[in-house]
Design goal:
Distance between the termini: 53 Å
Order of helices and strands: EEEEE
Number of strands: 5
Strand order of the largest sheet: 3-4-5
Bound molecules: zinc ion
Number of helices: 0
Shape: elongated
Strand content: 15-25%
Amino acid sequence: MITCPVCDATIDVDEEDLDEGDPLSCDECGASLHVVSISPLELQSDDESDEDDDEDFDDFDEEDEDEEEEEEEEEDW
Ligand SMILES: [Zn+2]
């Protein structure tokens, strides 16, 4: 049983037919995948470029989310 590393859907491919470097595609999410290793079976999405190390973080506004102040006082029942 092979699962898509992108969406976790089951890909209907016989593991025995796979070789390292074989291209696959996921029917579910359409991702282009390839086999990185067969034992253990490992798939990688072609969209994930490992070489690209500068990740463009969208300016993450880290605003204080302290609005939910949980003041749980012990209640006497
Ligand atoms: Zn998928």
